[in-house]
Specification:
single chain; 331 residues; alpha/beta; 7-stranded mixed sheet
C-alpha cells in the first residue's frame, strides 16, 4: 500500500524544506573534474514515501535509489546477462574498444563489468544519482549528470550503451543525436529495453489481466506525469535510421512472468523477472501512482492482483525485451 508522505526522519537524516528528508550517507566514487567540485546538493539524497531518491535535478527521475532499488537493479543485471548467455551486449564492437559510455548507469554494475572485460578501455558511467560503489576498476569512472543535457564529458566513444531508459528520457531523438555526435566514426550504440506489451503465445493471457492494467497505467503515468514514452522501443529501429545510424539490427527476447516455463533456463529467468517486476511495481505504487492522483485503495487492489497473478502458472505471460544496436557511418 502506498504511503502518502514522508514519515519521521530516520536517525542521521535531516528534515529538508517542504518535509523532505535529506541524507548524504552514501559516498560514491565520482569524477569531480567535470563539475569542478561536487556540491553537497549533488551528493545528497532525499527521503519521501519511505524511500530514498536523488536530489540533483530533484524529481527528474521518479524511481528510488535506495537499497531496495539496488537489489532490483542488481538482480535485473544478472537476469539480462543470463538472457544473453553471459554476455553484456550484442553490438560487434571488436576486441579492443578504447572509450565506452554507459548512459543511465544506475548502480554501475554494467560499467564495472565492461571495464573488467576491457582493462585497456576508458569506461564512463553517467547517472543522476551518486550511488555507485567506491571500489571500482582503475579504468572506470562515474559522473553525476543528466544525460539529456549538453555533454560535459569527453567525446569520440567507440560504444554507447543504454539500458531500461524508457522511464527516464523525455526526448529520445535529442539524446540519440547527441550520442551520434559523440561517437567515433564507425562507433556503435546499443539500447536494451522492454516493450510494455505483455503477451502469451497460447492465449492464456486475457485482455483484462492485471499485467495489462499495470502497463497501460504505467504508460499513462510516465507520459502525463513525467513526459516519458515507455513504448519508444517499438519504433526505435526506424527512428535510429532517421537519425543517421546505419546497420540497425534488433533482437527480441521474451521474459516470462514467473516460473511457468518448462525449460529450466527460462524458468530461472522467469523467477528472476517475477522479483524484478514486483519490486518495480512496488516502486511505482510508492510514488508515481500517488503523484498521478490514485487513491490508496486503488493502488492496494492493483498490487494485490499483481502479486496473485505472478504466481498463477496457468497464465503463460511474458514481456518483450528488445536489444537494438546501430552504427555511426565509418566516414
Amino acid at each position: 500500500m502506498a504511503d502518502e508522505g514522508p514519515t519521521e526522519s530516520p536517525p542521521g537524516r535531516t528534515r529538508a524544506e517542504g518535509g523532505r528528508e535529506v541524507t548524504s550517507d552514501y559516498e560514491p566514487s565520482v569524477d569531480e573534474s567535470a563539475f569542478g567540485s561536487l556540491s553537497s546538493s549533488i551528493k545528497d539524497h532525499v527521503w519521501e514515501y519511505g524511500r530514498r531518491y536523488h536530489t540533483f535535478r530533484y524529481g527528474r527521475y521518479p524511481m528510488p535509489n535506495d537499497e531496495e532499488e539496488y537489489k532490483r537493479e542488481s538482480l535485473r543485471h544478472i537476469m539480462l546477462k543470463e538472457v544473453l548467455g553471459g554476455e553484456l551486449y550484442l553490438s560487434p564492437i571488436g576486441d579492443n574498444p578504447q572509450k565506452i559510455i554507459d548512459l543511465g548507469t544506475g548502480f554501475g554494475d554494467w560499467a564495472i563489468e565492461v571495464g573488467e572485460k576491457f582493462p585497456s578501455a576508458k569506461v564512463v558511467g553517467v547517472d543522476l544519482s551518486p550511488i555507485q560503489p567506491v571500489w571500482i576498476p582503475a579504468n572506470v569512472e562515474f559522473l553525476v549528470d543528466d544525460i539529456e543535457d549538453e555533454w560535459v564529458h569527453a567525446s569520440d566513444f567507440d560504444f554507447a550503451h543504454l539500458r531500461c531508459i524508457g522511464n527516464s528520457v523525455r526526448d529520445n531523438g535529442k539524446l540519440a543525436r547527441t550520442i551520434f555526435q559523440n561517437l567515433k566514426p564507425g562507433g556503435w550504440i546499443e539500447i536494451q529495453d522492454i516493450s510494455p506489451k505483455p503477451a502469451s503465445d497460447d492465449d492464456t493471457l486475457p485482455s483484462d489481466h492485471p499485467f495489462h492494467d499495470f502497463y497501460k497505467l504505467s504508460i499513462e503515468v510516465f507520459k502525463t506525469q513525467y513526459g516519458f514514452n515507455l513504448s519508444y522501443v517499438q519504433t526505435l529501429p526506424e527512428d535510429l535510421e532517421s537519425w543517421g545510424f546505419i546497420n540497425v539490427q534488433s533482437r527480441i527476447y521474451h521474459l516470462p512472468f514467473g516460473e511457468w516455463p518448462k525449460d529450466p533456463e527460462l524458468r530461472a529467468i522467469g523467477g528472476c523477472f517475477r522479483e524484478v517486476f514486483l519490486s518495480f511495481a512496488n516502486a511505482m505504487a510508492t510514488r508515481p501512482f500517488v503523484e498521478f492522483g490514485m487513491d490508496r485503495g486503488e493502488i492496494h487492489d492493483l498490487m494485490t492482483a499483481l502479486k496473485e497473478a505472478l504466481f498463477d502458472k496457468r497464465v503463460h505471460a511474458s514481456l518483450p525485451m528488445h536489444y537494438i544496436w546501430a552504427q555511426k557511418p565509418p566516414t
